[in-house]
Amino acid sequence: MRLVRIALANVNTTVGAVRSNVDRAIDLAVAAAEDHATLVAFPEQLISGYPPEDLVQWRAFVEAQWRELERFADATKTLGALLVPGVTVARGDGVYNCAALVHRGKICGLVPKEKLPTYNVFYEGRTFSRGTPALYDEVHGVPFGDLVFDVDFGTIALEVCEDIWSPDGPMRRRCYAGAELVVNISASPYRLGVLETRREMICTRAGDNQCVVAYAGLVGANDNLVFDGGGFVAQNGRLVHAAPRFREGFSAATVDLDRTTRLRREITTWRSDQETFIGLAPKIVHVKVTEPTAARDALVYPTPKHQSFFLPAPSERRPARAEFCEDLLDALTMGLGDYFTKIGAFRTIGVALSGGRDSLLCLIIAHRWAVRAGKLPAEVLRAFFMPTRYSSQETHDAAEQAARDLEVPYESISIDDAFESELKAIEKMLQPGESLTAMARQNVQARIRAERMWTWSNCAAGLFLQTSNMSEKAVGYSTIGGDGEGALALIANLPKTVVNYLLDYLYEQTGWEGIRLTLVKPASAELADNMEDEKDLMPFPVLDACFALYAGEKMSPDEVSIAVRTMFPEYEAAQLDGWTAKFARLFTQSIYKWVQAPLSLHVGNLDLDRERALQLPVVQRTEWQR
Predict the structure, then answer these.
(1) Which residues, at least 6 apart from 504, have a Cβ–Cβ distance to it below 8 Å?
(2) Residue 458 in contact with residue 434, Cβ under 8 Å?
(3) Do 236 and 347 belong to one domain?
(4) Are 42 and 183 within one domain?
(5) Positive or negative CA dihedral for 401, 403, 404, 410?
(6) What confidence score (pLDDT) does residue 614 get?
(7) Which of 247, 267, 288 is the endpoint of a domain?
(8) What is residue 58's predicted lDDT score, i.e. its pLDDT?
């Protein structure tokens, strides 16, 4: 047996907090070493925090990371574990996103990332230079480039995040060059459904390359990206270990590298491919690590906990509904909590409750964070209800009950007088032939509420949450300077159907009366008499389908119409065609609103954050749609 204990360390870093990030990493390195870890994998850009974006263009920012890497090496010099942190490194005219190998106080080597993502939420190709096959150089006297490392228990390779997502990444050539254990340090953001994709991809890479893959993820949130942490260890295609997600810490698994050697010898196809590749492959430098790693005599062979090599292990997975909802709620909770704490400007969190679904979900998520952070909701949360003549008793009761359920301080302050006063002031501004429109009357109410929330924020050091959802944002069903305002758009990338689904689930789990009172009334902005959102727009399932097909699948309006007719046979085809055309028109006309929206948490494969996801010109015409 050749037993090796692999620890995956999930660190909640903050961009720019180079000293604090390293302090957290040192603590985890010591704890993992006490658990007999042979190797500890940390996240991508551990020292700088991720994503550093244009900060890497500051020379002082990059130099500070090297100093902290040296401090990390010195602080861990008594540990026998191999340590793999992520760091930014300057070399010549380029700046590189690297994985470093640190052992017994020495920086043994630096391996730059080769696959630089410049799609969706990533812009790495804009700032980083990429590693290349056969690259070799020295930085600060340390080997740099396309390396593998020979240590006392075998040969290991390092790579960074996106390198593993490409089947033509560096893993193949490094495994053919002898690497048995590949350590991938990652900062892969959370998005719905990504866990299963990651797991399958990592197991596939481990099987294709007949190796052990250790994949460690970043945990925490920075700006609008949420990182769920966790990670996997897979050996020759088989999942060995899955690390817990959404928490800082480490977990570990023991593997027998002799199993990898045995399988490589048995699988003739792999050997044949290796022989062919070696004859054509670029030269990969082997770096000899001479200092011994931690003693491994205390390690125990990884036998199945259920005492059978042939029977399946008992399933511990939650039902799909709970998995979906809890995962999403955890991501939003972490995104809100880290935004609140890391910025350092806030003492409280405020929600303008409307008695409707969106604001209620935001308050529940804020409550969830407060409880998990060990805080009394009454100490950090505030809820405000600001009715006008159009506000119903039902929504007033729902808002008040929700605050009572969650034990959040609640105030109801009418804005009717301010509304009336504002209308009179606006009338004085109008020229002959101009008049107050119904839209203006509605928007005035939303803007008064937003102005009051901002003023409260100034007085209470409050994080003012914007509460609109993605469905309404997509078609501009919000008010600039009104309900489009806030310091963080907590659910701006959740479709309305998902908002409703989460509230149904939360009611099943909690029985909170405020949720029930909110759900029994049709969704309404209550800015005019007899107002209902779906009557103004269209049924939300139809709207969300149009959004997914048009914005996600990039279909033309005609193609969307064909698809939604199949999805919703209960509606007349002509009505669906009308809704589809309406969606496409409103979607394009509303882009100018998106660019003014607050920062929003990225939790899906598609959202309307122009700087991160869907980049569309504000000024455009739709003549191409026929």
Answers:
(1) 519
(2) no
(3) no
(4) yes
(5) negative
(6) 76
(7) 288
(8) 93
Strand partners, 286: 148
Residue with tokens 């959102």: 533
pLDDT score of 278: 78
pTM of the model as a whole: 0.94
Q: Which domain holds residue 263?
A: 3-288
- We report the CATH number of the domain holding residue 464 as 3.40.50.620
Give whole-number Cα distances, 248 to 9, 22, 87, in Å: 8, 14, 19
Say whether 87 sits in a helix, a strand or coil.
strand
Q: Point out the least confidently predicted range of 223-232, 565-574, 594-603.
A: 594-603
Residue 192 to residue 606: CA distance in whole angstroms: 10
Assess whether 167 and 81 both reside in one domain: yes
CATH code: domain of residue 32 = 3.60.110.10
Q: Is the separation of the CB atoms in 394 and 517 below 8 Å?
A: yes
Mean pLDDT score, 15-25? 97
Q: Are residues 280 and 328 in the same domain?
A: no
Report, as an integer, the average pLDDT of 20-36. Answer: 98
Cβ count within 10 A of residue 206:
28
Q: Are 366 and 379 in contact (CB under 8 A)?
A: no
C-alpha span between 545 and 563 (Å, rounded) = 9
State the total domains in the chain.
Answer: 2
**Residues 283 and 324 both lie in one domain:** no
Q: Identify whether the C-beta of residue 123 lies closer than 8 Å to the C-beta of residue 71.
A: no
Shared domain for 423 and 473, answered yes or no, is yes
Q: How far apart are CA 297 and CA 294, in angstroms?
A: 9
Q: Let me know: does 144 contact 91? Beta carbons within 8 Å.
A: yes
For residue 530, tell me if it sits in a domain: yes
Query: What contacts 303, CB < 8 A, 6 or more positions away?
Result: none
Amino acid 283 reads K
Instruction: Quickly state the pLDDT bin for 316 (edges 50, 70, 90).
Output: confident
Considering the domain boundaries, does residue 450 fall inside one?
yes
Residue 242 corresponds to which tokens in the numbers above? 């899955």
On whether the CB atoms of residues 89 and 110 are closer than 8 A, the answer is yes
Asked if residue 244 has a cis previous peptide bond (ω within 30° of 0), the answer is no
Q: How far is CA 157 from CA 11, 124, 162, 396, 556, in A?
A: 21, 22, 15, 61, 46
Q: Quick one: 42 and 84 in the same domain? A: yes
Residue 626 confidence (pLDDT) above 70: no
pLDDT tens column, 261-310: 999 999 999 999 888 887 776 789 999 999 999 999 999 999 998 889 88
**CA neighbor of 87 nearest in space, from 174, 9, 22:** 22
**Of 508, 503, 191, nearest to 364 (Cα)?**
503
For helices 357-372 and 320-343, the axis angle rounded to 10 degrees is: 70
User: Residue 547 falls within a domain, yes or no?
Assistant: no
342 and 265 inside one domain: no
Q: Please report which confidence band the pLDDT of residue 166 belongs to, taking 50, 70 and 90 as the band edges.
A: very high
Q: Is 219 helix (H, G, I), strand (E, B) or coil?
A: strand
Sign for the CA dihedral angle at 451, 613, 60, 24 comes to positive
**The pairing of beta strand 147-151 with beta strand 154-160:** antiparallel
Nearest CA to 464 out of 482, 487, 446 is that of 487
Q: Is 605 exposed, middle or buried (0-12, 13-18, 19+ CB in 10 A)?
A: middle
What does the alpha-carbon distance between residue 274 and residue 284 come to, in Å, rounded to a whole number?
14
**Tokens 């105030």 identify what position?**
411
Task: Tell me the average pLDDT across 541-564.
Answer: 96
